[in-house]
Amino acid sequence: MIEFEKNLEAALKAHDQSDDASHDLYHARRVKLAALDIAQRRGEGDEEVLIAAAYLHDLVNVPKNSPDRAKASKLSADAAEPILIELGVCAENIEKIKHAIEAHSFSAEIEPQTIEAKILQDADRLESLGAIGIARTFYIAKTMNSNLFHGGDLFASDRDLDDKTFGVDHFALKLLKLHKTMQTKEGREVARERTDYMIGFLKQLAAETGFTYPEGDDLWIEEEAPKVAS
Question: By the 8 A CB rule, do 82 and 59 touch?
């Protein structure tokens, strides 16, 4: 499997022509580790499928503000197929890998049908949470020429939330609710821990900027999530 991973990393490097540090080789490695951790805790999931899908899920990287963003996962799945064939992956696993890649994306809106697809989606979404999630949020805000936050109305008390203009607004619009979208119980547990960490960051940011964290505002609290089937 070590040789398999080396070949996948080489393929990713050969195809990655972008300078997006939020979807680079290290992102793929973290997604792989998270996916294998979830699979181990569950006691299910094909290791070859998970490793290949983790490395190749962003093979074609379309910018977040591109009108073609929703096509990225399908393009990545298609680009992955010849690589997987060359590496000798069986046809059945290639189809599983392609489905996991296609279904991992928010914008594609494809329901994951296999345990590997569910695990990959969870592992990739965990990258948007916790310390990594905070770092990525502000990195992406910079790449989109957004402000870090609204200095006069940090938590949008008297304005509409706008995460295309203010990075911190993305927490309320998406990140604090992300744990509810997890497909596995194990992914949900990690997501809630990382969400708590982000809430702590927002409270500290409020203290340092003279604001009060809006505990009673549903937009800024960690909502109780529906149960996920084991």
Answer: no
The rounded distance, in Å, linking the Cα atoms of 94 and 87 is 11
State residue 88's pLDDT score: 95
pTM for this structure? Answer: 0.89
CA–CA distance, 118 with 112 (Å, rounded to integer): 6
Residues, the chain, total?
Answer: 230
Kind and range of the H or E run holding 98: helix 91-103
Question: Two tokens at 96?
Answer: 């599983």
Q: Which residue has the higher pLDDT, 62 or 154?
A: 154
The closest alpha carbon to 77, from 24, 117, 133, belongs to 117
Q: Is 42 helix (H, G, I), strand (E, B) or coil?
A: helix
Cα gap 217→50, rounded to integer Å: 38
Quick check: helix, strand or coil at residue 147? strand
CA gap 65, 44 in Å, rounded: 36
Q: Which helix (H) or strand (E) holds 200?
A: helix 185-209
pLDDT tens-digit readout, 2-24 = 899 999 999 988 887 667 766 78
Could you say which DSSP state residue 227 is in? Answer: P
218: tokens are 């549903």
Name the burial class of residue 169, with classes exposed (0-12), middle (13-18) and buried (19+) by CB atoms within 10 angstroms of its CB: buried
Q: Residue 93 belongs to what H/E stretch?
A: helix 91-103
Q: Measure CA of the first residue to CA of the last residue in the chain; give whole Å.
A: 28
- Between CA 46 and CA 19, with CA 132 as vertex, the angle to 5 degrees is 85
